[in-house]
Amino acid sequence: MMKILPSYAVVDSLKQHADQASAATIQSYQAETGRTERMATTAAGLTLDFSRHLISEQGLNELIKLAEQAGVEAKRTAMFAGEKINKSEGRAVLHTALRHMGDRLVMVDGEDVMPAVRDTLSRISSLCDTVHAGQWTGWSGKPVKHIVNIGIGGSYLGIKTALDGLRPYQRKDLQAHYVVNVDPADLAKTLAVIDPETTLFIICSKSFTTMETRVNAEAAKAWMLEQGMPEADSARHFIAVSNNIAKATAFGIAEENILPLWDWVGGRYSLWSAIGVMIPLMTSFAIFKRLLIGAFEMDEHFQNAPLEDNMPVIMGLLGIWYSNFFEAQSHAVLSYASDLDAFPGHLQQMDMESNGKRVTADGQPVDWQTGPVIWGGVGTNGQHAYHQLLHQGTRLIPVDIVAALESHNPVAEHQDWLFAHALAQAQALAYGCQEDQIRAEMAEKGASQAEIDMLAPQKVIPGNKPVSLLIMDKLEPETLGALIALYEHKVFVQGAIWELNSYDQFGVELGKVLGDQIFEQLTADSAVNEADAGLNQWLQRYRQKHHR
Ligand code: F6P
């Protein structure tokens, strides 16, 4: 049998609270006077209402002790101080330095990284000025109109999330495109709509060794040459962002066209770095700065707010409450803001690549559950699809509902309807609709007893599904930055309590190695005889199809 959590003193007491909560209802907790005021916190333009949770206030106090006993505060200090908390790779974890707006030094290996961060920001700013002024021209002298980001994982998801979140701020004179995966259809759909003479490709790869990005970058360059780009003009069409300058120059990117990032920035935390250069290019440098400021405000809150008011700490603890004490397998993030449509994808990488781990930071097997499956979508779309399972399925799925009070697009009553439904879902999840009420309503409408007996149980919505409301005034650059940073810190808090290194990702490596080997087998000139029959049948079938 698995332990609930590492051996923190408070775990037994938490277990008792969880047993009590299992016999209680969110509705009964919510009836306590003052709970809704006490169980809310505001920071960096976001309000977290965490009152609709299956936990008593005493239980929550015990959860705060869990954070204390797990040393979350000391671990947080170590991260912000640039200690090498990514032990397996011997790296600091300093995405927070990328958005640091104060005058603090941020030291790594005895060196302040802030001058390099500021220098890169000013290079990004100059690049934006040149492109926006129409002075960055292609081989035929025409200004840039299309920007294509070639990158995957952290070199795509955060950028897409931020840029979609900033839709109202996007420039009309530039079009953004993404080439992400190695399916040739992905590249083809972009090549079909861009104009080579006015296209700027950003080869975005921290390592510059990622197969998908390398293959797509090579194909894009070949296509540009075919379209008439003189080789000598490739610097006008290709720039790169990478920590691997040697590989980027070897690919043929002019050194002055390579924006750096550093090994202390994890891929899934890199949208704040030059990896996110597409964001200011497609909006403005000022908007990008506002995004960084919002994230910085959340960093300040995370560092300074007491644990009981600390939004990332509370969200992290509540996630652990359900994962470890109630066996919840997944966590849904439902955005009642269409411009956040890409957010769940970014969260999946941020959370699942960080905390989907089976050993501790010291390499000991964990004997407790770690990161949940993260999923989600935009409201109200989900209400006409998977919300059925949220309301009446057999699994407990905690939900975050993210919503804004005001829209950038004041069309008719749309925003009123949208916000009404965000609140309605929170109410329905938490309180449901019980059988006696359904029976009474059916009887009032004249249903027969047989009908009532058959239908009433099917109509029951049990409720008691935990839901956090995360509300902002409006989805603006600052609130978007704060929102993303909030989840980054939530992931940190959970990793700290589960004793994980949230900043490596060895789990993705085997697939890469096998992918290389199987690629060799699929494309070999001579016959292939693979010992594994299950694999061999598909190798032969593919090779036959391609006449190999
Ligand atoms: O394979 C996983 C991963 O390394 C992610 O962690 C990373 O965000 C992604 O691939 C892309 O990596 P890169 O930016 O080095 O191309």
TrEMBL record:
EC number assigned by the record: 5.3.1.9
This protein's pathway: Carbohydrate degradation; glycolysis; D-glyceraldehyde 3-phosphate and glycerone phosphate from D-glucose: step 2/4; Carbohydrate biosynthesis; gluconeogenesis
GO biological process assignments: gluconeogenesis; glucose 6-phosphate metabolic process; glycolytic process
UniProt-recorded Gene Ontology molecular function terms: carbohydrate derivative binding; glucose-6-phosphate isomerase activity; monosaccharide binding
PANTHER family listed in its UniProt record: GLUCOSE-6-PHOSPHATE ISOMERASE
Function, in words: Catalyzes the reversible isomerization of glucose-6-phosphate to fructose-6-phosphate.
Protein name as catalogued: Glucose-6-phosphate isomerase
Species whose genome carries this gene: Parendozoicomonas haliclonae
